[in-house]
Design a protein that fits this description.
By secondary structure, the chain is α/β, with parallel strands linked by helices. It contains ten helices and eight strands. The protein has helices at 20-28, 43-58, 71-88, 158-165, 173-176, 203-206, 209-234, 241-260, 273-276, 278-285, and strands at residues 32-37, 63-68, 97-99, 120-123, 128-133, 147-150, 184-189, 262-267. Strands 3-4-5-2-6-7-1-8 form an eight-stranded mixed sheet. α2 (43-58) packs across α3 (71-88) and α7 runs antiparallel to α8 (241-260).
């Protein structure tokens, strides 16, 4: 059946491969996520793309920002990488989203309608993502954002980000305040070589390792509890009320922890060995 914006459930299910760093990033779901990783580790494809899609889907009508150092970088690297991943997952341009133009009337209206759609990705449920380029002064002026993706962070001017863009990430609490990923920010980069480009490395000191371990344990306990409930349903046995209440409590606890969590990780390209292959790694390490 052909997928449509009004019935996205018609999209066929498919298995998607994520390497360990990517899976951990998604499962932990921290409000602030900083990933410093080497080339070809799938930062845009399998870390940024799910982050953007999750926020746009689960906060219908919201506005998010994709911060890039230059507009050229955004339209030649970041955005094509995001949309290529979406395409593989079954999202079709013109049906589920449009880029750089006013969306069709079949799409829901965003809560805050952009003044100009030239640098905007619009999803069928009314959510929009605005490309914020630092080589275009004022590109984040007057925006009310519910999330931020900062790509190629080592090339980002932190003073501009702090003064012009971070204050806009205030979101609309009346609509999305219950979500742990409201006001979330994801920062992606490979390792910086200059002091100016190292502005995001201090997040490693802000991460609470014990909180991250507790989130991991809670995610596992939720999975274990759901498996138990599925087994009971499959066998035709009733699901005890306490088990359902326990699951709701776990979900609430997880949401609270995620809403204050900072997750910082550094990875090398070797983490993506299964997709890149040994020959690529050997070529990159051969002097």
């Amino acid at each position: 059946m052909k997928p449509t914006p009004t019935n996205p459930k018609t999209m066929a299910e498919k298995k998607i491969y994520f390497n360990k760093p990517q899976r951990l990033t998604h499962l932990i779901g921290a409000n602030t996520t900083v990933i410093v990783a080497g080339r070809r580790t799938g930062k845009t494809d399998s870390i940024a793309a799910p982050f953007v899609l999750r926020n746009m889907q689960r906060m219908p009508g919201s506005t998010g920002g994709i911060v890039v150092p230059t507009f050229k970088h955004g339209v030649t690297n970041t955005i094509p990488g995001l949309l290529a991943a979406w395409k593989r997952w079954g999202y079709i341009e013109g049906i589920h989203y449009v880029v750089g133009r006013k969306p069709p009337k079949s799409f829901r209206q965003p809560i805050i309608d952009p003044k100009d759609y030239e640098h905007v990705i619009s999803l069928y449920n009314g959510s929009v993502a605005v490309i914020i380029s630092q080589d275009r002064p004022g590109s984040s002026n007057s925006l009310t954002l519910s999330w931020l993706l900062v790509d190629e962070a080592k090339f980002i001017d932190y003073a501009k980000l702090k003064d012009e863009t971070l204050p806009a990430n205030g979101g609309i609490k009346s609509h999305f305040g219950k979500h742990s990923f409201n006001h979330s920010i994801m920062i992606l980069s490979d390792m910086p070589q200059t002091q100016k480009g190292s502005w995001f490395l201090h997040y490693r000191d802000k991460m609470d390792p014990e909180l991250i371990k507790t989130i991991e344990a809670t995610v596992y306990e939720i999975w274990r509890t759901k498996e138990r409930i599925r087994a009971l349903n499959a066998s035709g046995r009733p699901v005890p009320a306490y088990l359902k209440g326990y699951l709701r409590r776990l979900d609430r606890d997880l949401n609270k922890m995620r809403s204050v969590a900072v997750y910082y990780r550094e990875y090398s390209s070797i983490e993506n060995l299964q997709l890149l292959g040994e020959n690529y790694i050997k070529q990159m390490t051969t002097k």
